Amino acid sequence: MAEHDPSVTDGASATDASKLKTLLSILKRTVGVKDLASLRISLPAYMMEPIPNLEYWNYQDRADFFVTVGDYEDPMDRMLAMVRYAVTKELKFVHGKVVKPYNSILGEHFRCHWDVEPLRTDASGGFVPHQSVGNTKPPTHLELVTKQPQDHDGCKKRVVYVTEQVSHHPPVSFYYYACPDAGLEMTGVDQLSAKFTGTAMRIFSGEKNQGVFVKLTYGVRAKSAVGEEYHLTHPAGAIFGLFRGSFWPAVTDTATITCTPAPSANGAKPVYLRALLEYVEEGWLSKPKYAVEGVVYAYEPDHASASYTSVRKVPSDRVLVYIQGNWRGLLTWRYKDEKTTHPLIDLADLEPCERKVRPLEQQDELESRRIWSGVTKAILEKEYSRATNVKIDLEQQQRDQAKARAEAGTNFVPRYFEDGIENGKPKLTAAGKAAVLDELRRDNSKDMPLPTKN
């Protein structure tokens, strides 16, 4: 267990220097460890952001891009819409700082929802994001393939989220999203692994994390897409600047988006599309470039083309669209045989959309914000010793409960999800379905804002 840094006193903010000193003292003992998630490392409270892990690692920073995936009749428009969503699902890392949320305890769960206005297209066949945008410049006008306007009459759509921590060692959580009005369901398993290389912290998906699974259901506008599924894999991440005293995150490795088309109603040949996004590796001493390049190409099921791992391995005769740009700024797309590029998305325009969370008195005792409310209150009041002590008590309760289960010969049983995983796609229990329905029906009159530090 990491010791509380004596240089940080109650009532004083922790400096980056003191945080760095504590962090490096911990990390230097972990060089060569295959997976830091397997270690039982407890950080002092002053190094943590006052937000639960299950709330922090959600994939709806831009739920407005998510709900419009099924709007388009053209398969390429839907794939590009999914690429837009994929690069916004963790928008917090584009504008935000590197933070450490609370570690989840076994059985902890979190629920929330987003009410978003879908993206609108205009007569020119493009659209401009209008929700949660920055004020420095007018948002970039984004272009579609088919240039067909979509009118949503300004009606907001609700995306609901339920997640539960189902394992503590290793840390694993299940999650489920739904937007019935947009005909979208999304599910998956979260498990992060980490390794300290001596110059950077590397973060990647754990073995149970098979990516994100999105299914288009009967609520989608493009009725020909009902039953279509997308499988998104996560890129890796890294934290540089540990020895400069100024942390900065980088996205690395490759992310894929594979579309399994819906069965054709009229006998037409299905269109199998797959996207590859390669994030250029940053040198730990070099100036960050944040570059990304990618392709959308035609693949064949049960063929090598369904598992290409890099852009250069994709034969040119399969490539349909090229993607390039900056994952903190503008990404563009173009057809293989044209020179003109079209704006796909500009991350610099966007801020995370607001999520809605019930007040503490309406939450279950194992809901994230209620569990960690004592730690959060102490951190916000800059009483770091008290925050650390409350955190230690919670961790000891977990150890006591684990010991009691071991002595009784019983296993933990999740509440909202069925025990076990089928192809990386968790299934809701009756209680989980009820929680989703409750979140869909609730009003926002007493929603709870995210606590922030002064």
TrEMBL record:
Q: Which residues form a coiled coil?
A: 377-407
Q: Which GO terms describe its cellular component?
A: cytosol; membrane
Q: Which GO terms describe its molecular function?
A: sterol binding
> Could you tell me the keywords of this UniProt record?
Coiled coil
Domain of life, per the record?
Eukaryota
- Extract the Gene3D superfamilies matched here: 2.40.160.120, 3.30.70.3490
Any keyword Chloroplast? Answer: no
What's the family? Belongs to the OSBP family.
- Specify the protein name: Oxysterol-binding protein
For this protein's source organism, the top of the classification is: Eukaryota, Fungi, Dikarya, Basidiomycota, Ustilaginomycotina
